From TrEMBL:
Quaternary state and interactors: Homodimer.
Organism, as annotated: Herrania umbratica
Name this protein carries in UniProt: Bifunctional protein FolD 1, mitochondrial
InterPro entries documented for this protein: Aminoacid_DH-like_N_sf, NAD(P)-bd_dom_sf, THF_DH/CycHdrlase, THF_DH/CycHdrlase_cat_dom, THF_DH/CycHdrlase_NAD-bd_dom
Catalytic activity: (6R)-5,10-methylene-5,6,7,8-tetrahydrofolate + NADP(+) = (6R)-5,10-methenyltetrahydrofolate + NADPH
Keyword field contains Hydrolase: yes
Pfam family, one: THF_DHG_CYH
Domain Tetrahydrofolate dehydrogenase/cyclohydrolase NAD(P)-binding: 218-313
Membrane-spanning residues: none
GO terms classed as biological process: photorespiration; tetrahydrofolate interconversion
Length: 350
């Protein structure tokens, strides 16, 4: 079962949208074949949104026009701010229609189980968002809430219960766990087939190894790849820099980009000359969680930038945690982007 709602939540992503040749991607072709095969056998398999190892040719959705002549501009690169919210909407609506068809064909829907330990307000908000996304897509969700001081065995029991439950297809243990709990031990008992976060060492190992396919790919890294591919950004052969090397974001993003044939460098807190390394990149993905770390002097003109970093703050009126400052200094990056626009477009900017 591969069908899960994964949030693609980029507020800011700047890049080049490339007008491509309008071919149906090989992923899409394989997807429709899978669907056709499955219709006859009544088994529904959701194809992966990003197919690993195989280079795809994606049809860019947008068409660009010269604002003066009105002529279509083909095969040119247009400086743009990638609209992550719009792409997320497209994905959510596609998942919702797949779930609907699944329900009509086999009378079942995917199920997500979330285990939340403790009372961290940010974790509560993240979990609430996931459950809301499930509801909107028609996915069943169940939740086990455990107190901060619970025993390791209580968490293990919750995991094992969901492992056995046939109506649960994905299990998510919200991180971080309270310090007295052994995260590694808990994640290791999670059934590989239900490891929707893709954090199990076997899933992560399969992501790292060529020719192997993990059952699940961590959601934020996969979201980044979706943004790039759907925006027509070429990855193969490009110099990519990933800032951050955590198990949740930095490491899997760097592995995914490598599998899409980028040459990847990783910048972390101990890296010397991070600015110089990053300035050489065609493609930058930042997941450090350090506000305004990336200034314009870190960016090459024409590079594609995806900013994953957030410093969530609590909205005092609602008590909800909202994403706040970002890794990339947005105004400076935007100024760099505007310099690349033809003068008549730059003049339109207020
Ligand atoms: N939008 C989304 O869907 C998601 C957003 N996030 C956000 O992404 C960010 C990263 O999250 P996560 O990976 O979990 O965080 P971690 O704190 O686990 O990792 C941060 C990484 O950034 C590196 N780093 C820290 N400071 C610097 C610096 N000054 N220069 C270069 N590298 C640095 C660290 O290096 P080292 O390893 O050397 O310590 C580490 O590898 C956070 O802001 C988080 O809120 C996270 C998950 C999902
Ligand atoms: N098992 C597990 N899986 C996780 O994926 C996981 C986790 N534990 N623990 C905490 C981290 C952190 N994390 C974030 C998700 C969204 C934003 C975020 O800010 N998203 C949107 C805003 C929210 C929205 O629009 O839905 C944004 O970037 O604009 C930040 C951080 C997930 N994590």
């Amino acid at each position: 079962m591969r069908m899960m709602v994964r949030s693609v939540n980029r507020k800011m992503a700047i890049g080049w949208a490339k007008e491509s040749k309008g071919c149906l991607s090989s992923t899409m072709t394989r997807a429709s074949n899978t669907w056709k095969d499955n219709q006859s056998s009544q088994i529904l398999l959701s194809p992966p949104l990003v197919t690993l190892d195989l280079p795809d040719i994606w049809a860019a959705k947008s068409t660009h026009y010269d604002p003066l002549s009105g002529q279509k501009i083909s095969n040119v690169q247009i400086a743009t701010v990638i609209n992550g919210k719009l792409i997320a909407e497209e994905i959510r609506s596609r998942v919702a229609s797949e779930v609907k068809r699944m329900k009509e064909c086999i009378g079942k829907v995917p199920g997500l189980a979330v285990i939340l330990v403790g009372e961290r307000r940010d974790s509560q908000t993240y979990v609430r968002n996931k459950i809301k996304a499930c509801e909107e897509a028609g996915i069943k969700s169940v939740m086990a809430e455990l107190p901060n001081y619970c025993a390791e065995d209580d968490v293990m029991t919750a995991v094992l219960k969901f492992n056995e439950d046939p109506s649960v297809h994905g299990i998510l243990v919200q991180l971080p766990l309270p310090e007295h709990l052994d995260e590694e031990k808990i994640l290791n008992v999670l059934s590989l087939e239900k490891d929707v976060d893709g954090f199990h060492p076997i899933n992560m190992g399969n992501l790292a190894m060529r020719g192997r396919e993990p059952l699940f790919i961590p959601c934020t890294p996969k979201g980044c790849l979706e943004l790039l591919i759907r925006s027509g950004v070429e990855i193969a052969g490009k110099k990519a820099v990933v800032i951050g090397r955590s198990n949740i974001v930095g490491l899997p993003i760097s592995l995914l980009l490598q599998r899409h044939h980028a040459t990847v460098s990783i910048v972390h807190a101990c890296t010397k000359n991070p600015e110089q390394i990053t300035r050489e990149a065609d493609l930058v993905v930042s997941a450090a969680g350090v506000p305004s770390l990336i200034r314009s002097s870190w960016l090459k003109q024409g590079s594609v930038v995806i900013d994953v970093g957030t410093c969530p703050i609590e909205d005092p009126s609602s008590g909800v945690w909202i994403p706040s400052c970002r890794d990339v200094c947005y105004e400076e990056a935007l100024r760099l982007l505007l310099q690349l626009l033809p003068p008549y477009l730059e003049a339109l900017d207020p």
